[in-house]
């Protein structure tokens, strides 16, 4: 059965993607690495409970649907996502390398624009291949066993945060932690046990408490006289980083809050939200274009007036969403029909049919 889009969750996608774009805007342009000033404060206000929270909320959203999925074709979904990522990767490669060339000495370009947020896409592809096994493990496990599993994975993620061990494998540990937490909460609901995620006001209070906690710590670090700008900037990025489980708690709160909002179906919200994945993978490419033509860069973001900072940020955010929407529309109209036929051919091969049969037995 085709998933019916829920405007409350689609609205969440849009707001969270906005926070992701803002996060990379201030992070990649050194706004958090300067002395404390009004622009730094704006950056901290936007990122202390934003982009990484969005990552966790997006994983919660995926787990929410995948945990309810049964007997669905595995490889059709996998190749559909894989081809989207491949097409956007080729587009990014052509644009960025066409503008900047190869083997540049620009660390921001090579380590952020050319890598950046793509870790999420890679992890999601892996999730699409293993979620039937995860669902099986969750279904046969008790709530207590799932709770222990979440605890172990949570400790692992925290150790990675403390030691700053950031790589794809540890990204998967973070994803598995979130997925098993969603399975644990699902199991508790099935057992008739109540929890805080059923109360919207409780979710708001928990979110605001941890948001203000992270914001306060970050402001303190930026103002600390015993830290220079670079040291305080590194510590701040750890506080708003993806392995800090306080961000995970806020992500769960955001997801369950939006899930409980009663909202009528809005076609324009659903339509715009379809482009958020393209915005996610393209907004850094848009930033590269802005860098190349001097429209947004570290100097203008760090040393311009607050008014110019806000205007430039708004232009970049709007451009990122427009680019994502246009590319998604063109992809859906011209490439997707061709790719769907190609996927059908691939999935009809003997190897894929055998693998699909194995997966279906796992269910």
Structural write-up:
78% of the residues lie in helices and 0% in strands. It is mostly helical and 363 residues long. Helix 3 (51-66) packs across helix 8 (168-190), helix 4 (74-100) crosses helix 15 (306-347) and helix 9 (200-223) runs antiparallel to helix 11.
Unreliable segments of 5+ consecutive residues:
none
Biggest sheet, in brief? Answer: none
Number of helices: 16
Overall 3D geometry? globular
**Which band does the percent of strand residues land in?**
under 5%
* DSSP summary, beta strand count: 0
**Average predicted confidence as pLDDT:** 90
**Structural class estimated from helices and strands:** mainly alpha
What does the radius of gyration come to? Answer: 21 Å
Q: Ends: how far apart?
A: 16 Å
Taken in chain order, the helices and strands follow as HHHHHHHHHHHHHHHH
Helix content: over 70%
In short:
This protein is mainly α.
Strands, helices and their partners?
Layout: H1 7-28, H2 38-47, H3 51-66, H4 74-100, H5 107-113, H6 118-140, H7 143-163, H8 168-190, H9 200-223, H10 229-239, H11 245-259, H12 267-273, H13 276-292, H14 298-303, H15 306-347, H16 350-362
Features:
363 residues; mainly alpha; 16 helices; 0% strand
């Amino acid at each position: 059965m085709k998933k019916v889009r829920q405007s409350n969750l689609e609205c969440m996608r849009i707001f969270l993607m906005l926070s992701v774009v803002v996060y990379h805007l201030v992070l990649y342009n050194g706004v958090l690495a300067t002395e404390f000033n009004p622009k730094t404060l704006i950056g901290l206000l936007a990122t202390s409970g934003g982009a990484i929270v969005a990552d966790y909320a997006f994983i919660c959203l995926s787990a929410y649907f995948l945990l309810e999925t049964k007997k669905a074709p595995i490889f059709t979904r996998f190749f559909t996502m894989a081809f989207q990522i491949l097409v956007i990767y080729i587009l990014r490669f052509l644009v960025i390398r066409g503008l900047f060339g190869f083997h540049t000495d620009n660390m921001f370009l090579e380590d952020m624009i050319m890598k950046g947020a793509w870790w999420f896409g890679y992890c999601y592809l892996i999730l699409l291949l293993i979620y039937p096994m995860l669902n099986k493990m969750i279904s046969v496990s008790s709530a207590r066993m799932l709770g222990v599993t979440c605890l172990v994975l949570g400790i692992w993620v925290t150790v990675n945060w403390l030691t700053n061990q950031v790589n794809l494998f540890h990204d998967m540990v973070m994803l598995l932690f979130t997925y098993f937490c969603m399975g644990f909460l699902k199991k508790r609901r099935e057992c008739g046990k109540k929890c805080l995620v059923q109360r919207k006001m409780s979710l708001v209070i928990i979110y605001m408490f941890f948001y203000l906690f992270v914001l306060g710590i970050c402001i303190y670090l930026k103002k600390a006289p015993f830290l220079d700008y670079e040291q305080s900037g590194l510590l701040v990025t750890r506080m708003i980083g993806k392995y800090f489980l306080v961000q995970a708690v806020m992500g769960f709160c955001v997801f369950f809050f939006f899930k409980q909002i009663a909202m009528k179906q809005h076609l324009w919200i659903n339509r715009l939200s379809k482009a958020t994945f393209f915005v996610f993978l393209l907004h850094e490419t848009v930033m590269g274009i802005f860098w190349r033509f001097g429209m947004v860069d570290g100097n203008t973001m760090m040393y311009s007036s607050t008014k110019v900072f806000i205007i430039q940020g708004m232009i970049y955010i709007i451009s990122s969403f427009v680019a994502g929407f246009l590319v998604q529309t063109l992809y859906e109209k011209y490439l997707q029909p061709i790719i769907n036929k190609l996927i059908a051919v691939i999935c009809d091969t003997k190897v894929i049919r055998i693998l699909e049969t194995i997966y279906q037995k796992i269910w």
